[in-house]
Amino acid sequence: METNVDLMSAPSSPSNIRHDSFFQDETKIVGSSGVWNWFAYARGQMVDGLNSANAYLEDSAALQATTNTIYHVGEEAHKKFAQAGAYTGSLGQNVVSQVQSYGQVLLSTVDLAKVKDDTPIELSIICEKHIDASSLNAAFQEVFYNTTSCGYDVVSGLAAQLVGPASAIEGCKLRIQAARAQKLVSDGSVVVAVDSFINEVVPGTWVEQYCMLVNDLQHEIDLHVFSQPVNVPASLIIKSKDATPAEYALRSSGYAKSIIEVISETFPDVNIKDWYSPFVGISNKKILYLVSQLLAALYHQRLVNTQRPGVKSDEEDIDVDAMERS
After folding, report:
1. For the residues of 242-275, what is the DSSP string, one character each?
2. Residue 144 carries which DSSP code?
3. DSSP assignment letter at 12
4. Which of 33, 155, 192, 323 is most buried, with most CB under 10 Å away?
5. Angle at 88 between CA 84 and CA 10, to 5 degrees
6. Which of 81, 3, 14 lies closest to 42, judged by CA?
7. What is the average pLDDT across 44-70?
8. Per-residue DSSP letters for 84-97?
9. Comparing C-alpha atoms, which of 78, 77, 70 is closest to residue 114?
């Protein structure tokens, strides 16, 4: 696949405007040299970036890094252009309008060049019903546009409320094993299990996090990620802990009553699918989406590595090529 970007048709600075001239209106005088010098720099950065995008079009990771740089320069350019237009009156507005058009052409070209991975992904999501699986599907579709997904509620056999990251990882593994044993998912399916857990980060301070684990038998990929921790009121933890008998068989992995159960009993009007919003001011869906994006990106990187000779799929997720290009 080859994409050529026509950079010759881009407008240059007007010939009748001296770069060291001054535009004047009724209120202030502003030097234009700084604007034009900055635009020259931005133009050079965008041209270099687009040339790099052409060279790396087949490498989605390189293209992503390149386009991110171009977008950053483009956004800064638009700010400069808008500021210049505000200060230079009608003449300056006309000049800025032409320059902005050039920047928009560049950014539009990059939009067309951004290529998603067309690898077909059959995604099986295993989680409890109160966890919104749509975030995972959306995040994977950002990376793999040919993604189809199904959701399953499979128990792990561990405590109702997991405590600690190790318990969460084990819980995800057991859910996946159970789903495969029950033939709910095919061997070619990419399976992602999601579990939430609480953790005492310092004495008296508890947080909840999501653990996501992806399992791809075909490419021998197993990796997990954790979400941003969210503070949990100590009163909820106490109720969950107090409801756990000393003889609870699964006590080694957590408590007998989940935080979700405690919230349902204590605050019946709270939506358990989004209990983060009233308690900490950010939605569960947003936290899930962010960690899902991380998982999809790491899985894609690992998948690419399996297709490179001499690279093992279980190696650390370090893209050496990306490091060299930077």
Report:
1. HTS-TT-TTTTTEESS-HHHHHHHH-TTS-GGG-
2. B
3. -
4. 192
5. 55
6. 81
7. 53
8. HHHHHHHHHHHHHH
9. 70
Q: What is the DSSP letter of 309?
A: T
**Which helix (DSSP H) or strand (DSSP E) does residue 191 occupy?**
strand 190-202
The reported pLDDT for the residue numbered 16 is: 40
State which amino acid sits at residue 324: E
Residue type, 7: L
Looking at the chain, how many residues does it have? 326
Look up residue 92 and give its two tokens. 């300056």
**CA 120/CA 73 separation, integer angstroms:** 33
Task: Write the CA distances from 229 to 165, 199, 209, 232, integer angstroms.
Answer: 11, 9, 5, 9
DSSP sequence for 75-86: HHHHHHHHHHHH
Residue type, 191: V
Q: Are 206 and 198 in contact (CB under 8 A)?
A: yes
Judge whether 158 and 250 are in contact, CB under 8 Å. yes
Q: Which two tokens stand for residue 301?
A: 């990187």
Radius of gyration (Cα) for the chain, nearest Å?
A: 26
- Number of Cβ within 10 Å of residue 15's Cβ equals 6
pLDDT tens digit string along 159-193? 999 999 999 999 999 999 999 999 999 988 999 99
Amino acid at 98: Q
C-alpha 187 chain-centroid distance = 27
Measured in whole angstroms, how far is the alpha carbon of residue 197 from the centre of its chain? Answer: 21
Residues 302, 286 contacting (CB under 8 angstroms): no
- Mind giving me the DSSP string for 166-177? HHHHHHHHHHHH
- Please state whether the predicted TM-score (pTM) of the whole model is above 0.85: no
